Amino acid sequence: MILATSFALLLCVLIVIYPYAIYPLILKLLPKRPVARDPAHRCSATLVFCAYNEGAAMPEKLRNIEGLKRRYPELEVLAFDDGSADDTAAQILARPDLVTLVQGGGRSGKANGMKRLAAMASGDIMIFTDANVLLDEDAIDNLMAWYADPEVGGICGTLQYLGSEDSTTASVGGLYWRLEERIKTRESCTGNVMGADGSIFSLRRTLYPDFPDTVLDDLTVSMAAVFAGKRLLKVDDVIAYERLVAARGEEFSRKVRIAARAYHTHMYLRPQLASMATVDKFKYVSRKLVRWFGGFFLILGALVAVILSALISPLLGGAAVAVLGLAILLGPKVEKGPVAAVAEIVLALIATLMGVLRAMRGQTFVTWSPAKSR
C-alpha cells in the first residue's frame, strides 16, 4: 500500500512539473527547422489593438505609435474602443494622424473588436497588440525580415515585463513569463509555437480566420497559421513591453478568465487540432492540456501525501494534515518571502483549474477590464 501510494505521489509531482521542466528538455531533442530570414524584405502592415478604459495608458501608447510611424510611415494603425467609460476614445480621436478608431457603442468584447478591425485592415501582415503594450522601435523592421520565408504564416514576438519588483505577485509573474518565453523559443526552433500571447504577434492577413466572439482570439488567430500548413514562429528580436499586474486578487481573476476562454477555445478548435502533425499534437498536449489540469494533480498530490504520511505513522499523518491546513489558511495571506512565492505558484495553478472547470460547465468570458494594479 505504501509503495502504491508513493508511486501515485511521484506521478502527481511529475505531471505538475512536466510542462515547465520535463517538456523543455524533450524539445531540445527534437530536430531543428531553420528559417530563411531576409533583413531587406518589406511588405505592408496593419497594427491593431482593442481598448477598454485604458485612458491612463493612452498617452504612452500614442507616443509609441508616433515613434513607430516615424520609422515605418506606411504603417496602418486601427483601434477598437469597447465602450470605454473614461477618455480612452477621446484621446485616440484626437490623433487621427496616427490611429483610425472604431467605436463599438457598448461592451462587445475583444474578439468582436478584432474581427471588425481585421475586416478593415489593408496590410499584408496584421500585427496584434494590446492597448497597454509598447513596441520596441525596431520591432516592425525586424518582423518584416521573418516574413521573407513564404512558409512563415505568423510571428510571435518577445514580451518583456516591467515592474517585476513591485510585489511578489509581479515577481513570480515575471519569472513565469521568462520561462514561458524560453519554452516558446524551443518550440519555434523545432517547427511551430502552440499559440500566441495577445501582447505581440502577427499573421498574414489572408490567413485570418472566422470565429465566434466567445473564444480566445489570440489563440484562435495565431493557430490559423499552423492549421493552414504554415509556420508559427517565436522570435527574439520583435520586442514588446508590458507592466505586470501587482495585486494578487487581480492576477488570480485574470488567470481564471484566461483559462476559461482558452479551454472554451480548445473545444471549438478540436476538429482542426486533430488534423495537426503528430509533433504539433505532442506540443499542444504538453504545453496546453497538461498545464490546464496541473491544479487538479497538485490537489490530488497533496491529498496523497497526507495519506502516505498516515500510512507511515498516524503521528506523521496528523502533522501532515496540520501543515496542509495551515498552508491553506495562511498561505494566501503571506505577501513577501519564499512562502509568498510558493503561494503565488499554487494559486496560479488553482486559478487555471477553476477557469477550465468553468469552461467545462459552459461558462466563458467575452468582455474584460484592465487591471488597476499594473
From TrEMBL:
<feature type="transmembrane region" description="Helical">
    <location>
        <begin position="289"/>
        <end position="308"/>
    </location>
</feature>
<dbReference type="InterPro" id="IPR001173">
    <property type="entry name" value="Glyco_trans_2-like"/>
</dbReference>
<protein>
    <submittedName>
        <fullName>Glycosyltransferase, catalytic subunit of cellulose synthase and poly-beta-1,6-N-acetylglucosamine synthase</fullName>
    </submittedName>
</protein>
<dbReference type="GO" id="GO:0016757">
    <property type="term" value="F:glycosyltransferase activity"/>
</dbReference>
<keyword id="KW-0472">Membrane</keyword>
<feature type="transmembrane region" description="Helical">
    <location>
        <begin position="314"/>
        <end position="332"/>
    </location>
</feature>
<keyword id="KW-0812">Transmembrane</keyword>
<dbReference type="InterPro" id="IPR029044">
    <property type="entry name" value="Nucleotide-diphossugar_trans"/>
</dbReference>
<keyword id="KW-0328">Glycosyltransferase</keyword>
<comment type="similarity">
    <text>Belongs to the glycosyltransferase 2 family.</text>
</comment>
<dbReference type="Pfam" id="PF00535">
    <property type="entry name" value="Glycos_transf_2"/>
</dbReference>
<keyword id="KW-0808">Transferase</keyword>
<feature type="transmembrane region" description="Helical">
    <location>
        <begin position="339"/>
        <end position="360"/>
    </location>
</feature>
<feature type="transmembrane region" description="Helical">
    <location>
        <begin position="6"/>
        <end position="27"/>
    </location>
</feature>
<feature type="domain" description="Glycosyltransferase 2-like">
    <location>
        <begin position="47"/>
        <end position="208"/>
    </location>
</feature>
<keyword id="KW-1133">Transmembrane helix</keyword>
